[in-house]
Amino acid sequence: xxxxxxxxxxxxxxxxxxxxxxxxxxxxxxxxxxxxxxxxxxxxxxxxxxxxxxxxxxxxxxxxxxxxxxxxxxxxxxxxxxxxxxxxxxxxxxxxxxxxxxxxxxxxxxxxxxxxxxxxxxxxxxxxxxxxxxxxxxxxxxxxxxxxxxxxxxxxxxxxxxxxxxxxxxxxxxxxxxxxxxxxxxxxxxxxxxxxxxxxxxxxxxxxxxxxxxxxxxxxxxxxxxxxxxxxxxxxxxxxxxxxxxxxxxxxxxxxxxxxxxxxxxxxxxxxxxxxxxxxxxxxxxxxxxxxxxxxxxxxxxxxxxxxxxxxxxxxxxxxxxxxxxxxxxxxxxxx
Amino acid sequence: xxxxxxxxxxxxxxxxxxxxxxxxxxxxxxxxxxxxxxxxxxxxxxxxxxxxxxxxxxxxxxxxxxxxxxxxxxxxxxxxxxxxxxxxxxxxxxxxxxxxxxxxxxxxxxxxxxxxxxxxxxxxxxxxxxxxxxxxxxxxxxxxxxxxxxxxxxxxxxxxxxxxxxxxxxxxxxxxxxxxxxxxxxxxxxxxxxxxxxxxxxxxxxxxxxxxxxxxxxxxxxxxxxxxxxxxxxxxxxxxxxxxxxxxxxxxxxxxxxxxxxxxxxxxxxxxxxxxxxxxxxxxxxxxxxxxxxxxxxxxxxxxxxxxxxxxxxxxxxxxxxxxxxxxxxxxxxxx
Lengths: 336, 336
Hints:
The structure is a homodimer.
Chain A: E1 2-7, H1 15-28, E2 32-38, H2 40-46, E3 53-57, H3 69-75, H4 80-89, E4 95-98, H5 102-113, E5 123-125, E6 127-128, E7 136-139, H6 149-165, E8 173-177, H7 188-199, E9 204-209, E10 221-223, H8 226-252, H9 255-274, H10 277-280, E11 283-286, E12 292-294, H11 301-316, H12 319-326
Parallel strand pairs in A: 1-2, 1-4, 2-3, 4-12, 7-10, 8-9, 8-10
Antiparallel strand pairs in A: 5-11, 6-7, 11-12
Helix pairs in contact in A: 1-11, 3-5, 4-5, 6-7, 6-12, 8-9
């Protein structure tokens, strides 16, 4: 039985998304068991089927607008986020899913579950929908604003194992996000990282990937520092969302558009589904001692169930132990 | 009379775009005169109306795949790009339009026309189409991978004058591209730059702008270093282009989609026009002694004429002298 801890109070919709998502996940997998950390009074009326679902009560929630994540994680021990992280630390659950505030989730995973000895940094790794229908991994997108080449190398190893074990990609390829495709492009940082990644034997490094290729990406994995990755992922999400809105506005603005929509409805839905992160799950947190998935803050029950499915696959494939095996101690410098 | 120098050989389409663009521009503005630097044998058959258009012959073209821009600019003195830049330096033309290779254009402007004494760095500043139909300025997007706060401050002043004089925005606002909206977000670099921009009196600084706001932007101008700006602009362009392609594929894949398209044709065209850089001109080069516009490499005649129109407005508004007046010497540290 795989036991998943769910931060039931987290996210914009709170229990409305997490309880429905949990019931959906349990009905999909017979070997899943879910513990909901959250407000019992709000959960119970929604929990129409509690087979393999239990509740640990707390009505304290980490605020989505939290400005001091470290302080919040350290002081709000009875919040649903802290509680589910402690459950993972104490092996009461195998993994965690939350749609709480991103920086709090990263800090809670870091401070409570703790880093793996073989990883010097923790990374946030979303799944990027791509034009060919196959998802890509991009990391780091915001856990660390600055990183050394060795840290990016460890992320590349971790993501390669995850791409193989969780996404089922045979020999995952790795690219370095950069402003040009040739070697020698970018800042000093990219030049050194490029050379370093070429020396990491356990990854299949293919060189630089330009940002305009992110949704039509030549590699399965793209690595970068957390500042650059955050700029890229937010630009991508903002552009995709904005274009969708503009298209909708424009269609509604004329009779021709409205009639056309009736015929094209299925196409437009399929289009928006292809670019929709709800299908692919959430962002994975790499580097701590248990699988953690951060679902989008605005996840509905369907999106939340995708995130549970994702973390289920991370546990099922024994991801963490395979990463430990893939990161030999000699590759790692334990000084911080 | 405003005299514009055109690198007629540059760009993916070469004379096919530049000659048509020049004829179009001359027919729009009666006070424009154009000098085409390019291959006379190829230009003449296309030049069906040479009123106020002259040719300076050269059949040497800077290669779009040029890997060593500094060497290319220094050695290819008889290339159309170098020649038009020398013409601007020697005041034979008032401004330059080219769709040549970006880094070569920046280097040629820098090495041949030369930096303004009041500007310590040269910036590449594209116009970003926005959802509200009003363009925004983003800089730097690739002239400098690393910048000090004072350099970004000078860019903010330059762009503010350009937004006012060229785009007709009354009191242009400035934002700093960053991974969070609150002060104190980002790398050390963003924190220092944020504080510095608050001290620059001649700009209207509004704080941080997140990348997901770029196409729905709260400020008229967004400043950042050239690496981050290049990551953002390329992610935006790649996502917009990729989404457009996916939508097209999807529509063509079913009968419903094809019928819907007949009704929705106008909407989809308007939609793609709104996000199309062909309408808004090219990227401006800020910081050298003459207005230079770098049109998209894949510009057609229409897009190229928009770029000529843009540089025409830069000359007409006396942009360079207004920037010199707006950048008092005490704000500038001339040590490099």
